[in-house]
Amino acid sequence: MFLKNSHVDYRAPLDPRDAETLGVAAAAEVERYLSFRDNHVETPLVALPGLAEKLGVGAVHIKDEGHRLGLGSFKALGGAYAVIRLVLEEAGRRLDRVIDISELHAPEVQAVARSMTVACATDGNHGRSVAQGAELVGARAAIFVHSGVSDERVAAIARFGAEMVRVEGTYDDSVREAARVAAERDWTIVSDTSWPGYERIPGLVMQGYTALVREALRKLPELPTHVFIQSGVGGIAAAVAGHLALEFGEARPVFTVVDPARAACLFETARAGHPVTIAHGAPTVMAMLECYEPSLIAWRVLSRVADAFMTVDEEDAVAVMRQLANPVAGDPAIVAGESGGVGLAGLMRAMADPAAKAALGIDARSRIFLVNTEGATDPGKYAEIVGFSPVVVAARNNRGAGA
């Protein structure tokens, strides 16, 4: 399904709160924080000229977040950053002075961190980031996971020392349970979704994602004409779209939000013109995007600066995983998890739909920017879908990409 943005706020300026959160100055501060991370390395921007020629566009570039901070997902930028900010702010209140990131490991700051517990709900990737951030600063973490999260993803979070809490039901059930328990125990919820009265911390999480946009813009040979970004609750899509709008104004790229058809909360919100909670149905293979209610601040951004919304099916996501693992001759292989290549799936679906292609103004000169939001965060599931382990796929680049 494809839908142009017809919201009354479309092309209106961002809310001042969101402009401050996602602007250039904020993104620069995120990058300064990253410079203090021991394992920080900019993730690759990968050109796929063979795929661009096959699709009939001028260029395709993918920012590969499968390498981010040892966690294999763009989420590494958000949760951990928010945890660090919150610890520094709490230390500042208790010590009655501004605490800089350079003081993170000072004894008095570490003492504050040890007194704090951060909590969140997760499908897997956000929880790993929050748990990693807590371990980094010396705080405790409690991570709530729903019944659909694989044991392998749970183990990947637990290795950072987090307390793991299983919740029956869906992601949204785990969000509610995490909020309830945290309120009872005076823990700090570090969520990547927002609800009435809870916006600042999800805003910090989104702010963390702006670093990947700044990195990409420094490497891209030209400003993209089109961007396709996948969406769960909307955080990554809003962060990218909002930052590009603030940086380039009316010259910004045409931006399309891509949802799984089985969990299309942003698409249905756009169709309704206001945030909606959709009914739970069959689970989607795009596990990190299986969300049934949008983040309010993400929708506030996307209602203004997203140009279109679309959905892709299960087979689209699977086909893209295999496409990236077995690329067009001359292109490098990319390890993309079940949700990682969904933006590319949206591009390919749009190219096959003459009406959508025309509505977006895609032609042979178009320059496409995408984000591989995750690598093989569940290697067993990846091998089951693709037919090869992620190690085998990654090794192909050392021998030359396959046809």
From TrEMBL:
Protein name according to UniProt: Diaminopropionate ammonia-lyase
Coiled-coil annotated spans: none
Top-rank taxon: Bacteria
Domain Tryptophan synthase beta chain-like PALP: 40-352
Top EC class of this enzyme: lyase
PANTHER family to which the protein is assigned, alphabetical: DIAMINOPROPIONATE AMMONIA-LYASE, PTHR42937
Required cofactor names: pyridoxal 5'-phosphate
Swiss-Prot/TrEMBL keywords: Lyase, Pyridoxal phosphate
InterPro entries: DiNH2opropionate_NH3_lyase (IPR010081), TrpB-like_PALP (IPR001926), TrpB-like_PALP_sf (IPR036052)
Pfam families: PALP (PF00291)
Listed GO MF terms: diaminopropionate ammonia-lyase activity
CDD domains associated with the record: Trp-synth-beta_II
Entry EC number(s): 4.3.1.15
Taxonomic source organism: Shinella lacus
Gene3D superfamilies, per database record: 3.40.50.1100
